[in-house]
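Reviewer 2 asked us to include a model.

Predict the structure of this chain.
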Amino acid sequence: MRITLVGSRHFGVTTLNMLREHSVSIARVVVADAEDRLAATARAAGIEVVVQANPKLVVASEIAPDTDLIITAHSHARIGKDALAAARFGGIGYHPSLLPRHRGKAAVEWTIKEGDPIAGGTIYHLADRMDAGAIAAQEWCFVRKGETARELWERALAPLGLKLLADVIDYVKVHKALPAKVQDEQFATSAPSLS
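Predicted model (structure tokens):
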């Protein structure tokens, strides 16, 4: 399976490392910033790196030829329809909430701010609306009393994201399709920025 990884920062790097250990071919890494640590890690591993022309949008020409699946890992860019169509199975991303709850940026912070006793992670299909595509995999965890957003992310949500991504990749290898369950809009929340 050929993957184009779109991402940044630490979670982008840990996702890249998980993919390298998961018997898939990483055809290309796409980043918004040429100096990002994901770009440096990919280059060091001999993986082609492409810098997005528009940091808010990934287009088809930035997706590697013959890509089976686009994976986003800490990317704030929208993956255009043409880019999704360039990949055999489209694209998936990880969102650190139980979608459709806490769509948008700062999902972990909103989990803490709202006092949610349970958090979780979702692998979802990339779609026109941010964080609104069908659910491919989802799992929950408890939030510890007094835990900060960063502590929750590092302890539970980042590792959960890597596990769920690996599970979905394994599913696609066997079934030659992405699992999909439509999000229930009656439970959707979209949090404004915390700033």
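The chain has five helices and nine strands. The helical segments are 9-20, 37-44, 81-85, 107-113, 149-175. We have added this to the supplementary material.
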